[in-house]
Specification:
By secondary structure, this protein is mainly α. It is built from ten helices and no strands. α9 packs across α10.
Length: 248
């Protein structure tokens, strides 16, 4: 019986390369269009992103730009990153269109679910950081500022710090997807992961300690969701195992 995998395998290499080039061009055009649409609002985007810190600045204090080009380049960089985040579902759709013909039907169904889940979880991690962790974190930093020290943060350093945390929390929220993939490809089974639960919990708190301010409440705010997401991944893996048993 002919399958999509057989069809993809029979395609000449030049056809694969041509399709890849077409999809890369589409991705670049999508990024450019989203960036052009967002750039007129670059200043407003930075104002929104800096709000979690500015609310804790002392009265009369403000953020500063220590470089001549920072007032332009920093919002420019932020707009480029926002364009990437907004266009990510469309970019992944192009990537999916390239790899899907090489998968079997069951593999396509599972891979598509993983792809969609990873996007949603990454955005959820960013939202969790922005609305819950950032206010708590910057409030803590403001409270421990030594007397006589003016809290005036450089806009470029703040953006780099925020983007790094967005990436860290977005990746941390990918735990269910990572857990599912580990079981799916056979690196470990559900029983082994369940026995490893104590080590996973300790690891979550270690990650929370590294990524958040040095107070127990902040660490718990990240560690507990990570542990719960690990449990969600185990439930998804158990569902996959039951479905595979029924298929047999």
């Amino acid at each position: 019986m002919s399958t999509a995998l057989d069809t993809a395998a029979r395609m000449p290499l030049t056809d694969h390369l041509r399709d890849l080039r077409k999809r890369l061009v589409r991705c670049l055009l999508l990024l450019a269009l989203v960036f052009v649409g967002l750039f007129p609002f670059a200043q407003q985007l930075y104002t929104l992103l800096s709000q979690p810190l500015r609310r804790f600045l002392p009265e009369g204090a403000s953020m500063i730009a220590t470089s001549v080009t920072s007032p332009f380049l920093t919002p420019f960089k932020l707009t480029a990153m926002c364009a990437l985040f907004i266009a990510m579902p469309l970019l992944l759709h192009q990537a999916w269109g390239f790899i899907a013909p090489g998968l079997y039907r069951q593999e396509r169904r599972i891979a598509l679910g993983l792809l969609m889940s990873s996007v949603v979880l990454f955005y959820a991690g960013m939202a969790f950081a922005f609305y819950l962790v950032f206010p708590m974190m910057f409030g803590f930093f403001a409270s421990v500022t030594p007397e006589g020290v003016a809290m005036m943060t450089d806009i470029s350093q703040y953006l780099d710090f925020i983007l790094a945390l967005f990436l860290a929390f977005g990746l941390a929220f990918e735990i269910p997807v990572a857990t599912f993939i580990v079981v799916w490809v056979g690196l470990a089974d559900v029983a082994t992961l369940r026995r490893s639960r104590p080590y996973v919990i300790v690891g979550c708190f270690v990650v929370g300690m590294i990524l958040t301010p040095p107070d127990v409440f902040s660490q718990t705010m990240l560690a507990v969701p990570m542990w719960l997401l690990f449990e969600v991944g185990l439930l998804a893996c158990a569902g996959l195992r039951r479905e595979g048993a029924r298929a047999v």
